Amino acid sequence: MHRVVIVGGGFGGLYAAKALRGAPVEVTLVDRRNFHLFQPLLYQVATGSLSPGEIAAPLRSLLASQKNVRVLLGEAADLDSQGRLLILAGDAAVPYDTLIVAAGARNHYFAHPDWCVDAPGLKSIEDATAIRHKILYAFEAAEREPDPARRRAWLTFVIVGAGPTGVELAGALAEIANDTLRNDFRSIHPEESRILLLEGSPRVLPTFPEALSAAAERSLVQLGVGPRTGVRVTAIDADGVTLESAQGTERIEANTTIWAAGVTTSELAQVLEQRAGATLDRQRRVIVGADLSVPGHPEILVIGDMAHCEQARFEQGQSSGDRTPLPGVAPVAMQQGRYAARSILARLRGATPRRFRYRDKGNLAVIGRAAAVVDFGKFRFHGLPAWLLWLFVHLLYLAQFRNRVLVFIRWGFQYLTFDRGARLITGVTPRE
Amino acid sequence: MHRVVIVGGGFGGLYAAKALRGAPVEVTLVDRRNFHLFQPLLYQVATGSLSPGEIAAPLRSLLASQKNVRVLLGEAADLDSQGRLLILAGDAAVPYDTLIVAAGARNHYFAHPDWCVDAPGLKSIEDATAIRHKILYAFEAAEREPDPARRRAWLTFVIVGAGPTGVELAGALAEIANDTLRNDFRSIHPEESRILLLEGSPRVLPTFPEALSAAAERSLVQLGVGPRTGVRVTAIDADGVTLESAQGTERIEANTTIWAAGVTTSELAQVLEQRAGATLDRQRRVIVGADLSVPGHPEILVIGDMAHCEQARFEQGQSSGDRTPLPGVAPVAMQQGRYAARSILARLRGATPRRFRYRDKGNLAVIGRAAAVVDFGKFRFHGLPAWLLWLFVHLLYLAQFRNRVLVFIRWGFQYLTFDRGARLITGVTPRE
């Protein structure tokens, strides 16, 4: 029986495994974690709206009824592309006939890897609970702090990067300060917090059309967020951020900085470079062919955030002939996962798989209560209807019916009470 | 205005603060954590039924509407009983007129503090997610392990201590192995797991009447748990447990051991001993007077798990004149918290507070689905009605309406599907 090994249980890997249901193949899904994580809602864990268990579903549960799938908890460490073996940490080898690599992305600090200490990014459950700790602890520390300057530093929050994640975090932080914590403290006024959203390009949500960027910026300003575009961060430490802009160099004293500016791929990309001759782009994504395979290795497919997949005119509104790679978003990974499964089955039938074609169904970003932007290419809108659509789509794609019910209830309570239910400070406090 | 300082936001401290609503006192509640934890359901987090956020509620939310209460995140480190100052870690001093100490209990390993590494106890959210990690990881490791003896050690679970927590953990573990994971693995059969429940006294649930202990033991055996009573644990390490019984010395190879055998009090008990002349019992509980105050310090009250409060015949069915201290359970702490508030208000009016009297409303312990024991003194029953009562009481006392709804839904899903929704392996893996 044809053996398919999938690395990664994110959107790409999970949708590939599901699309192989009932097929005459033996599937092994390898992941370092035992759960599929719904990353688009991770910022809601970081901001105390949801609990980790509500946006994660055990991979074994999701695939339990699929008898041709085996789930293995393990870390892919190396590859023997001649012998067609995936080597796990601890030296176990898993033989494959087709390998699907979908190990996703992680935070990237460009030339400053040390910034990860003071400006955590948002990629895992642990990241999210650590950021939740940092945010909530800042208000607690401010409440106790008698010195006004140090109190102000506790109440200053800097988010680096104004893509969808940065905008979502900034909006949620503003709602925490303005609404959730309004009556909770006696010495401080949380609504006096400063929330700064820094972005290198000239506008927030740079991948969206300009009109929607402008709408998002208005919503942010209304919430009390200060978007600063066209700035470059030159230093981050425990006490704040230094930035450069047209106005010169500026220092912001802030005890809480969050990174939402850059990602790179899993270490597995370098393994593919060394062991299978793959070419990586500047963000270490694997440049794949039209069938998502590594050139020279039709039996190795790379999908999702790890893949650099060029497709002319993938988005309406972009100039034709544009060779921008597909963005690292869930719909791309889902479609590539399903494509990978179909293409394996086509080859088993002796057919040549058709080239992968991304169907762009639109882009969404949420800012806060009743504030979101939607870009369907022809249709673009923002405000309440965009927000309702965002809610609907996210509930729809959340894995497991139980999680949909729990998240729906949490959102309902939050909408009615302005309170956030998962405001726990757990784990160790990194610094006082 | 009379200043009341409460240390600890568990059942004792929270109920004291709530009972002071509207009273002409200034209340400061100090806790190391920003949330009230519903400890009776902590084992359900450890066994993947509930998420941490569902059994915890932010103290600030719970007390936001009570204008005379201030919540302070901080750790009580020392006491100046002459100057009536509570000293926090970091040297801030909080002045009090009355101090209520309700800092609770923590795990205690008697003469073997090193056992905490290999046999974690269940007292905090972090403990619960670490135990959840240990339990779920053991099945994952067994699935990958080719050697039968090592596989068996991964599938052997030892719980030390058969009080309510130990019985609850053992029952839940058996249900995970028998039902939840039944179809999830391809190489192992989770239902072949061995679950051993070790207890030093001659029966499980030793504080319950003998007939209920026997009923609980039958339920455990039915679930496949092996209760071993009258045994003494002499060694615990990463590879297993050594125990002594009437049959001699025995070694159990097990990669997962959980501690549910002993508790001691917070370090604050020793501070009270040194700074206020308090006397501690063998479990380091503070021996309090009939009004719960430290002898010689009517302005310092100790309540909840930290207090050694004797009360003759506190339980029906116990011989009269029995001087056993009240047990460390939630109802005792709640009643003592309310009493502390009433007694402060009585003194402010110039009255002498009446002595504290515990009204025992009964004891409950749950084993698993449709299996629980209830001891109301005169009425004792077990099985389905006891289980339904247990569910009802725990939902009723859970703080915040939202959590009640979420937990109710989680339980409903689990009852119908046998699945557990919060089966995440998070944090670092302690050992391979």
Characterise the protein shown here.
The structure is a homodimer of 432-residue chains. With 432 residues, chain A is an alpha/beta fold. The first copy, chain A, contains eleven helices and 25 strands. Chain A has a six-stranded mixed β-sheet with strand order 5-2-1-9-21-20. A four-stranded parallel β-sheet of chain A has the order 13-12-11-17. In chain A, a hairpin with a 2-residue loop joins strand 20 (293-294) and strand 21. In chain A, helix 1 (11-19) runs parallel beside helix 9 and helix 4 runs antiparallel to helix 5. In chain A, 52% of the residues are buried. At the A-B interface, strand 4, strand 5, helix 4 and helix 11 of A face strand 4, strand 5, helix 4 and helix 11 of B.
